[in-house]
From TrEMBL:
A Pfam family matched in the record: NTP_transf_3
Residue ranges occupied by any MobA-like NTP transferase domain in the UniProt entry: 331-494
Keyword RNA-binding: no
One MF term in the entry's GO annotations: nucleotidyltransferase activity
Designated name of the protein: NTP transferase domain-containing protein
Alphabetic keyword roster: Magnesium, Transferase
InterPro entries recorded: MoaB/Mog-like_dom_sf, MobA-like_NTP_Trfase, Nucleotide-diphossugar_trans
């Protein structure tokens, strides 16, 4: 691969190493320079910039990342499409991430960098488990082939359903203990099938164990009145009296040290630590997850839990639905216009295939932005109808009484109502054909490029809507006046605009005239 500083006019057929803004436009990183580009760029075409050119035996960054990721994506892991030399890998099922003990040196930072979650991290289907980045714009094909051949697969050991029994031997907590345990089991694909109370003495607990065993549960959980610190304590002694055996006392996880593992017939028996009465993550969760994933629970395997077994406060609770921290995304949907161009009909309540245009627009946003409380719909003209649609979709509706003074007033109303977020989307309520995966692509691009301030979709060389804004631009957008959106702010930050090419003509289609409404079969009604 050749890499040089050249004036664009002398680099036809080369690709840009960095995005290149110029008066009236911008070329993105990786763009292949053409004669038409030079004509558009004017004097900028004479200023040297970094460019590169792949050789006949080179693989481009996306191709290289795809080939290596194909090897990394083992059982229970899927690889996404490449973006700028990066391939993210996702869990295909709920389970525990299993990492190989070593990877080729070339995946350690250069020429490719592989970042993963921690070994045995619990994941849910769709969680990102790893990210592979090819650092240079291209690699020799022989190097790519060697890295792909040597890479070791990441796997997700899937949780498999199991049945559990809970014996409460005078442990405090009562019904709360049952609810917490039921939720804890459900998080690892388990189900609480049997629940019984008994006294905290060897005879009573041994009898309860024997009875529970007749139902053949996969796991028997024992919540005792006191902690287990010795093999002669009541819980281990009762297990032996019932015909079972103690496999291990103690666990290298804190909280959760005072856990007992044993066996009774074909059932795994767990003496629960006192901390398991809380929904906060503890050693019991780690053991249940390994059991659900059908991973070994022998002393050698359990000893490995000590590395990372110090679970700090704020470590998460069982009701948390995702193991990955994600950027906080909010959205403003502008739906306040008086529809002057629509010829006296309410375009937002017009129906496409039986549902309002605004409802379809909202739904495309609420798919990638799961928290509907973070989606703000600004209403104005015919606010009652638009607000009712928003409420029916489960999002927040806010009326802008000053909507007739211009779009900027609606934008400001939305900005003022935004929750704490890292990015916010500004969308139009009359654009029902934008695809949900387009919005997801914008969000992913923001994660991938920390220098981006504004992220816009690009189709057929044209920017469209919606646009994703970094939260620290909120103050500037609050200064917009009149019937304007964010164009002036975007122009002031052109160097920070990231264009994301998408195969989605919907980003250019807003149903704001009677002709367009009719063209797409919308059934209109008077406001």
């Amino acid at each position: 691969m050749d890499f040089e500083d050249r004036a664009p006019a002398d680099a036809i057929g080369w690709q840009l190493a960095h995005s290149l803004p110029f008066p009236g436009g911008k070329l993105t990183k990786g763009h292949l320079l053409t004669d038409a580009d030079i004509d558009r760029m004017g004097n900028t075409a004479r200023t040297p910039v970094g460019v590169f050119r792949l050789g006949p035996d080179d693989c481009g960054e996306d191709d290289a990342a795809t080939r290596i990721a194909a090897t990394l994506a083992g059982a229970g892991v899927r690889a996404a499409a490449p973006v700028h030399g990066r391939v993210d890998l996702f869990a295909a099922a709920d389970g525990l991430l299993q990492l190989p003990t070593d990877q080729p040196q070339g995946l350690g930072g250069y020429p490719t960098a592989l970042a993963t979650l921690s070994p045995s991290a619990p994941v849910k289907a769709g969680d990102k488990v790893a990210s592979l980045k090819v650092i240079p714009f291209g690699l020799p094909s022989r190097d790519v082939k060697a890295l792909a051949a040597a890479a070791a697969a990441l796997q997700v050991a899937p949780f498999k359903p199991f049945r559990a029994a809970l014996l409460n031997a005078d442990a405090p907590g009562g019904e709360k203990l049952v609810k917490v345990t039921d939720a804890r089991l459900a998080a690892a694909a388990g189900a609480l099938a049997v629940h019984a109370d008994c006294g905290f003495d060897k005879a009573s607990l041994a009898d309860a164990l024997a009875k529970a065993s007749t139902a053949s549960p996969d796991v028997i959980l024992i919540a005792g009145k006191a902690a287990i610190t010795d093999a002669r304590d009541i819980v281990p002694a009762a297990l032996v009296a019932a015909g079972g055996e103690v496999l291990q006392l103690g666990l290298a996880v804190d909280p959760g040290n005072l856990l007992m593992l044993g066996k009774l017939g074909n059932s795994l028996v767990i003496g629960m630590p006192g901390c398991a009465r809380s929904p906060a993550r503890n050693g019991l969760d780690l053991v249940l997850e390994r059991f659900a994933a059908r991973l070994p629970l022998d002393p050698a395997a359990l000893s490995t839990l000590g590395a990372g077994g110090l679970l700090e406060p704020g470590r998460g609770r069982i009701e948390v639905t995702s193991s990955n921290a994600e950027p906080r995304i909010a959205a403003i949907v502008l739906a306040a216009g008086s529809a002057r161009r629509a010829g006296g009909v309410n375009k937002l309540t017009s129906r496409l295939n039986g549902e309002p245009v605004l409802a379809r627009s909202i739904r495309k946003i609420s798919e990638p932005i799961k928290n509907k409380d973070n989606i703000i719909v600004i209403t104005g003209h015919d606010s009652a109808s638009s607000g009712a649609i928003a409420v029916a979709e489960g999002v927040v509706a806010i009326h802008n009484p000053a909507h007739a003074e211009g779009m900027s007033t609606s934008l400001k109303a939305g900005l003022a109502a935004l929750p704490e977020c890292d990015w916010f989307l500004v969308a139009l309520g009359d654009m029902p054909f934008v695809r949900a995966d387009t919005i997801k692509a914008l969000i992913n691009a923001g994660e991938d490029d920390p220098t981006a301030e504004i992220i816009a979709p690009l189709f057929a060389g044209r920017r469209g809507h919606p646009v994703l804004w970094r939260a620290d631009l909120k103050a500037e957008l609050m200064q917009v006046e009149g019937d304007k959106g964010g164009k002036a702010v975007m122009a002031a930050h052109e160097a920070g605009v990231l264009e994301v090419p998408v195969d989605d003509p919907g980003i250019l289609i807003d149903l704001d005239t009677p002709e367009l409404l009719a063209l797409f079969g919308a059934v209109t009604e008077a406001p």
